Each structure stands twice: as structure tokens, then as C-alpha cells.
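Q: Got a minute? One more chain.
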Amino acid sequence: MKTINAVRHHDADAGQAWLEVPKPIVKGLGIDNAISRKCLVDATSVYLTEPVASRLVQLALEDKQVEVVISEQPASQEVMVQELSGYTPARLGDQVTLLEDRLIDLPRVNDLGGEEILEIASQLQDRAQRYCNVMLPEHEWVSDLLQFKDGLNEVVALCQCPAHTSTVGMMTEVRHGNSEGYVCTAYLTRALSKAGMVAVPLMNAKFWSWEQADQLSRKIQEWYCW
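A: Always. Here it is, folded:
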């Protein structure tokens, strides 16, 4: 497991704190545009305002094989604001540190409900979006296909099909878009007793090249174990 050292700068008088994290780490998480412009930067680090921005980064790090070790250091808000620059994605620079992805266990059918399926779709969309932001920046969009559903129809489709196993799997495909470009789709699947499978679509991502769509497809297969 990789360890990252971070520093929490705290101004007790102003009631303000910043979590200092290396720029390449933040860049590699693919959350450049989600970080508040209230954060600060210097030549090597991003100073994330607490609790919102720092929590965003820590949640992204939890999705990786990472342990964050935080040390405390007193600070002056006035000095911090004077000596550091305001955050913009462009100020992260070009250096990127890529962290190992944590494998995700898929639940058994007996543990599958609407909320569980929605959570799988949401987590997959979030991870795919962050991966595309870093590795496939020419993607057009990534969408959670179950965002406005309750997941109950998907539960029925997966749980009531005739099958000899309670295992749920993940399948991906790449195809031409309706008008142009290529779409990578991820499905939650369950094999049928005799032949074939039930497939519930979870996420779509659109690309302008087949190679990039296929790269995401292969990456998604690496994320899940079943």
C-alpha cells in the first residue's frame, strides 16, 4: 500500500485550515475541475480548504491503494493568502502521479437491492470520469445510466432470472455511437442456467476514437473482481 504524507495547516484564530497535498497526486486523481477556487497553490503543492475540498481528495484517495499520513502545523491565514496563489486547474502543471486502483468486489445476488445497484453505477461513473480526466482527456462525456431510477427493475431482472449461480459480473462493450464517435458501455450481468445472460446497463462514455473507448472498456474490467 502506498503512503502519502500530507500536512494540515491550521489557523486557530481564524478558524481556517488547509490540507497540503503534492500537485502530481491531485492531478492524478482526475478531480482538477471539482476543486474549489478558494484553495491555494505554490510551486509544488495544493492547499485544500477544509473540510469540503480536503474531503473530496481524501475520498478519491480512499478509492486507491493509499494511506494518508497527516501531520499538523500552525499557520496564519493572512500569510497563507499573501504568499500563495489562488487555485486553478492550469496551476497543477503537467506532472502526474498515478495511484493503483483498488479492486472492487461485486455483491452476490442475495445481497443485491435497488440501493446497491444505484451505488455501483454511481461509483463506476465517478471512477470512470476521474480516469478519463487523466488518461483520456479527449472523451466527450461519461454518464450514470441509472441516475434517475430506483434500481428496482434492475434487481428483478438480475435476481429472478433462472441461474445456477448467485455470482454477479461486470461486462463492457464498445460500439459506434448513434451519429458519430464511439461509446463504451458497462453492464452488471448474471449468467443464465442454459445459455446467455441478463445484462443491466450502468454507465456510458463517449469518445472520438475507438482506441480510447476500448482503453476504458479494458480498464473497467481490471477494476472489478467476481
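A: The two ends are 22 Å apart (CA to CA).
Q: Perfect, thanks.
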